[in-house]
Structure formats: structure tokens, C-alpha cells
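Handout, page 2. Input:
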Amino acid sequence: MHDVSQRTDLEAEALLEVNNIEVIYNHVILVLKGVSLAVPRGGIIALLGGNGAGKTTTLKAISNLLHSERGEVTKGTISYRGKSIHQSDPSELVKNGVIQVMEGRHCFEHLTVEENLLTGAYTRRENGEAIQDDLELVYSYFPRLKERRKSQAGYTSGGEQQMTAIGRAMMSRPETILLDEPSMGLAPQLVEEIFEIVKGLNEKEGVTFLLAEQNTNVALRFAHYGYILESGRVVMDGPATALRENPDVKEFYLGMSEEGRKSFRDVRSYRRRKRWLS
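Output:
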């Protein structure tokens, strides 16, 4: 939609830049159609849109996890700290400070919570004391995990598994976390708790976040900037505060209009009559 070179001052010092990428699956299915975005150092950037919009594919394109699903970036560039990364090995990206927390949590169910967390430090070369310090840091953000640290991860709740997945990512000492659908399947109170922890990690530990999320309402309360995807294209982007107040975003993603709250069916039929996207 926009070239990265035309970005605002907020994004002038972008840590991660995605410029006009296309992604094709199985050599024929075009999933992303010219997606551009920028993630500034120390930012929380939200990638928004409904199911099938292309959010997860965008994250996997950045972290080079497309090949296992017969997908590939066929056009455009992806760079991190000014260097091209879209041909890099995923393990190299982790060493460079970029890690993805996959949708669906993906814990090692047969391992304990603490063993899961320690797998996140696998690539590190420091001594045990440094890793133990980071484990205690993770527990300070996720006190519930400390209580459940000896429990098998497969027997913990969905919220605890999401916390474990984020905590495991933190154990690799990341600079940037790609967080895919953190609210999926969780009760509203837990969603709020997870996002508060993301905010804390961002503000106190300096972790940069790019998060893909269907829950536009909560994401725009915690993010600094947002990109809205539909059918593999960025159809709108801007500061989170501006997107929250945008009438089209209210209408289509927050379920609100000037007349008040609309049902999903009303919004869906209205969208068929008035396409605000190109």
C-alpha cells in the first residue's frame, strides 16, 4: 500500500521493515499482495484483521517459517536492522534477537512448565546463573507460572500455556517478539492480563512487539500503531489512537457506528453495500 521510504518520523528508525512483499503457496495461491509495514525499535505494532486476512502469513514470512507449508516470498524485501533477512535460517533469526510465538501456544506438553521455559534458553552460551536470573525475571512477570512450574504443561490451562509460550520466548533474550493471536481462546480477563504483561515487557525490558490479533478492540488499546489487513493487503494503517476513532474501523472491526452498536450481521451486510477498501 505504501513504500517504507514514505513512513512517518515514528517509523524513521525502523528495526524491522517489510516492503511490498508477495507470498505464494504451492506456486499458485497468492496470499499476500504487496504488504508493507515498519516496526520501530521499542514499539508495539498491531497487525489486525479477520481470519484469513494474511496476518499469520506475514509473521511467518518475517520469521522464515513458510517453507514448511510450501509458501515462499516471491516479491519484495524484509530487513532487520537494515539487513535483508528473508533468506535467513530461522535459527539465525533467533540468535539475532527475533523470535515468533506461534498461534495456538505450542508448548511441549510432556515437559513441565519450567522445562518448557528453559528450552527457550537452548541457543544461549551464558552460564547457568545468567539463565537462572532470567528464569526469575520471567516468573516475576508470570507469577502463576512459578506456582505451576513443576506441572506438566499439557495439564495447564490455555492462559497458562500462552504465558509459558511468551515466557519461553523471553528466555532467548529477544529484541523483537512476533506474537501470533495471543488472545485466541482465552477469557476476556486473561486476555487483559496477557496484554498488560506485553506492555510491561515492552516498557521495562525494552522488547519490541509485532502482534497479529483479531481482537481489534484490545489490541488498539495497547499498541502504538496498527495495520489492518484484508485479503492479503494492508487497507489502512495509522497510530492506534487514530484507528480507534476512525468511523470505518469502529463500524467494521469494533462493531460500533454513530447510531450505536450494530450486530455482526448488520455490519456484514453493510460492508457488501459499501466497500471502503480498494
